[in-house]
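DATA SHEET
Item: assembly model
Revision: 1
Owner: S.N.
Input lines:
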Amino acid sequence: MRDMRPLIHPSIEDITVEGILHALSDPVRAAIFAELAVCAGATCSNFLKISDRDIPKSTLSQHFRALREAGLIRSERQGVEMRNSTRYAEVEQRFPGLVGTIMKAHQAQAEERLRAGRRKAAAKKSKAG
Amino acid sequence: MRDMRPLIHPSIEDITVEGILHALSDPVRAAIFAELAVCAGATCSNFLKISDRDIPKSTLSQHFRALREAGLIRSERQGVEMRNSTRYAEVEQRFPGLVGTIMKAHQAQAEERLRAGRRKAAAKKSKAG
DNA sequence: CCCATAGTTCGTAACTTATGAACTATGGAA
DNA sequence: TTCCATAGTTCATAAGTTACGAACTATGGG
């Protein structure tokens, strides 16, 4: 029976731009990373529901692995659960501004979408009522 | 027989962060974009050889399409060939700093790799000689 | 009209990603 | 201990994406 592999955390010099971009080009992963930035030590299952979507836990596990192997987060077992934190400071040192700018853009876009959503809802309401 | 579809250029507000990150997470596409930034109006076949790699033209065509549909470049037919230019200014306005920071990071990494390559070559030479 | 050059599209093989089911790991209760 | 619950991982496979040769479209010049 297959044993469980140890978690892989690339050393700072093995982190690549391609890897970071690819990892953060997925909206779910970007949302996880954003949340971890404000809420260090969150566990995986804290994200079973994210941005109004249900994510199956196997999928979630893959997303965490992707972030981990891109060098964006660090995961450590703590008892029965997994504590995750960002490696922002390290990555920032290697590629100054990269991750911050990406997350800022993601956030700007999310806010824009929220506004657009509200506009649409308001329009519908005024038509109906 | 299938007709040729017109080229698709998303309007500025339809450009997404995910799309940009995904497009630029491929080293070939990032290299094309970087080259277009310095050398506006280059044609597709100018890139059949890029970073010491031969890219088949069908693959190249897909890469250009990916950049175009992410909103990063504009392509216009000019006679028998296609002139490509970046939409950097527009994208910069929508997501300030995003593309510039990404390209800077890509470049820093490329230079680092060059240095590492030279180190390795020098070490091999000193061992052999 | 035919040819050459420049790109696109298509078919398919290779790779990636998503997800349910079955597993491992850990700690606490009986 | 043994059993159980919780937290994540791995596996199998289905669905989606990407790479690339071959065949196509498009354009301009003999």
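QC remark: Chain A touches chain B through 21 residues (CB under 8 Å).
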